[in-house]
């Protein structure tokens, strides 16, 4: 579960040896607001940590707290890891792996650290509490700095920041206004729309996919056909063009119209695929394009 949430802002970062032996300060992200979510130390495997991150990502994007593009740094993970003998209550010496920017890297880095901790302990060497970085090319972690204890951070109140008191009634009102969350959406896709477990999971875990899917349905599109087109041809186009779903220029009503023409037998699925480039950023209806091409 979640321990607490910090509201912070990004600071500058030091860039060492970028120019000769000099150190420079990168202030590109300085002042950008961020949310730090601290979780309880109760995850017991790298796979569990990866799934937890995926669920967190789905919720944050569904609530439009962030866009969730991890490659652009919109969401990052600092993973803390320690191991202990079976039956031991207290945690072992921990290390923190900073700035992991993909779910795959979270799992790989934790797997590496678990094995490194195990070997250090079995060889009789003392583990050091430290912060480490993950090298995705060499598939290993390396030391960044010794890990500070809480008292070394020198926390103190800021006189310019007033206390913020959150009224319980206000919190309850906000809870009532929350949109449908990914797990509830997945269940609805399975139980009411008849989507497969896999399709429902993929759609519901992505705010980009599920919002677009909902818009296609609102325009009258068949759920299963809409899902197939989104996860099939549109995803292929996204990968080819390195674009988001909305950036393709195929708005949901036009995909709904395309699906309808297939179901009526006006055009085949093969012809429909060939029409997709024509539909992109075109003001004509799909029916008009079909008529103009004599299809």
Automatic annotation (TrEMBL):
<comment type="function">
    <text>Allows the formation of correctly charged Asn-tRNA(Asn) or Gln-tRNA(Gln) through the transamidation of misacylated Asp-tRNA(Asn) or Glu-tRNA(Gln) in organisms which lack either or both of asparaginyl-tRNA or glutaminyl-tRNA synthetases. The reaction takes place in the presence of glutamine and ATP through an activated phospho-Asp-tRNA(Asn) or phospho-Glu-tRNA(Gln).</text>
</comment>
<dbReference type="InterPro" id="IPR017959">
    <property type="entry name" value="Asn/Gln-tRNA_amidoTrfase_suB/E"/>
</dbReference>
<dbReference type="InterPro" id="IPR018027">
    <property type="entry name" value="Asn/Gln_amidotransferase"/>
</dbReference>
<dbReference type="Pfam" id="PF02637">
    <property type="entry name" value="GatB_Yqey"/>
</dbReference>
<dbReference type="GO" id="GO:0006412">
    <property type="term" value="P:translation"/>
</dbReference>
<dbReference type="InterPro" id="IPR006075">
    <property type="entry name" value="Asn/Gln-tRNA_Trfase_suB/E_cat"/>
</dbReference>
<comment type="subunit">
    <text>Heterotrimer of A, B and C subunits.</text>
</comment>
<protein>
    <recommendedName>
        <fullName>Asn/Gln amidotransferase domain-containing protein</fullName>
    </recommendedName>
</protein>
<dbReference type="GO" id="GO:0050567">
    <property type="term" value="F:glutaminyl-tRNA synthase (glutamine-hydrolyzing) activity"/>
</dbReference>
<dbReference type="InterPro" id="IPR014746">
    <property type="entry name" value="Gln_synth/guanido_kin_cat_dom"/>
</dbReference>
<dbReference type="Pfam" id="PF02934">
    <property type="entry name" value="GatB_N"/>
</dbReference>
<keyword id="KW-0648">Protein biosynthesis</keyword>
<dbReference type="InterPro" id="IPR017958">
    <property type="entry name" value="Gln-tRNA_amidoTrfase_suB_CS"/>
</dbReference>
<dbReference type="InterPro" id="IPR042114">
    <property type="entry name" value="GatB_C_1"/>
</dbReference>
<dbReference type="InterPro" id="IPR004413">
    <property type="entry name" value="GatB"/>
</dbReference>
<dbReference type="InterPro" id="IPR003789">
    <property type="entry name" value="Asn/Gln_tRNA_amidoTrase-B-like"/>
</dbReference>
<feature type="domain" description="Asn/Gln amidotransferase">
    <location>
        <begin position="211"/>
        <end position="295"/>
    </location>
</feature>
<comment type="similarity">
    <text>Belongs to the GatB/GatE family. GatB subfamily.</text>
</comment>
<keyword id="KW-0436">Ligase</keyword>
<keyword id="KW-0547">Nucleotide-binding</keyword>
<dbReference type="GO" id="GO:0070681">
    <property type="term" value="P:glutaminyl-tRNAGln biosynthesis via transamidation"/>
</dbReference>
<dbReference type="GO" id="GO:0005524">
    <property type="term" value="F:ATP binding"/>
</dbReference>
<keyword id="KW-0067">ATP-binding</keyword>
